[in-house]
Amino acid sequence: MNAPEVRRHDDADVLVGDVASALLDRIEAAQARGETPDIGLTGGSIAEELHRELARRAVDSSVDWSRVRFWWGDERFVPADSPDRNAGQARAALLDHVSVDPANVHEVPASDQVATAEDAAKAYSTALREHGAGFFEVLMLGIGPDGHCASLFPDHPALDARDAIAVAVHDSPKPPPDRVSLTFEAMERCRAVWFIASGEGKAEAVARALADDGSVAETPARGVRGDETVWWLDEAAASALP
Ligand code: 6PG
């Protein structure tokens, strides 16, 4: 486990541009090694900006999109065509604009496809397990003003999930209430975890996540400690760091 790395950027546009370049480089490098990289997408507003930027840059990049596998760090348990779906957002902003192989897009099952969020978590875990142990080349995550990441919220029972890859989440303080999230255990198996945060509203949570001490129950983003954890921040989100 290495100490998290912090990369600061002047503003949200520069931040999104840098993350997009770094992600495209990383995918190209993996493909040059003959791999089909697994990328974990996230929900939220900064992720949507990133997906749009990736779609804009796709034309000039040499990424072979049909050789990228897409997964999600978390998903909202709503019908497949709901505008609240993280997968729907990623499709509209990115996946519909590049030539992905549909067999490589691994969505968490929706509420009109399986009965419960527990069933969705189980099916998603099975898909990940069948796929292999290494999990993602890069998992992208946002952070909430309360310190949540993916759908792991402060003082929530889902934080304690053990021996699990994905967990059902109910009573989420961020709507919608029912969700599916990767667990810390799964996140730690990713080659890299990239947090992306923009805006003053995230500053306190970012500072708590990166502080030397503090609790994971209070700030779940503290619980993600992989081999390579990078915090991509704009100056506003970094403003409470020492
Ligand atoms: C979701 C998320 C969530 C999100 C953060 C940051 O499903 O809502 O995956 O963890 O990434 O809440 O979202 P914003 O960028 O919108 O603040």
UniProtKB/TrEMBL annotation:
It comes from the Bacteria. InterPro entries: 6-phosphogluconolactonase_DevB, 6PGL, Glc/Gal-6P_isomerase, NagB/RpiA_transferase-like. Pathway: Carbohydrate degradation; pentose phosphate pathway; D-ribulose 5-phosphate from D-glucose 6-phosphate (oxidative stage): step 2/3. It catalyses: 6-phospho-D-glucono-1,5-lactone + H2O = 6-phospho-D-gluconate + H(+). Residues 11-231 form the Glucosamine/galactosamine-6-phosphate isomerase domain. GO terms for molecular function: 6-phosphogluconolactonase activity. The keyword Disulfide bond does not apply. Transmembrane segments: none annotated. Its EC number is 3.1.1.31. GO terms for biological process: carbohydrate metabolic process; pentose-phosphate shunt. Keywords: Hydrolase. It holds the Pfam family Glucosamine_iso. Belongs to the glucosamine/galactosamine-6-phosphate isomerase family. 6-phosphogluconolactonase subfamily. Hydrolysis of 6-phosphogluconolactone to 6-phosphogluconate. This is 6-phosphogluconolactonase. It comes from Nocardioides ganghwensis. The lineage of its organism: Bacteria, Bacillati, Actinomycetota, Actinomycetes, Propionibacteriales.
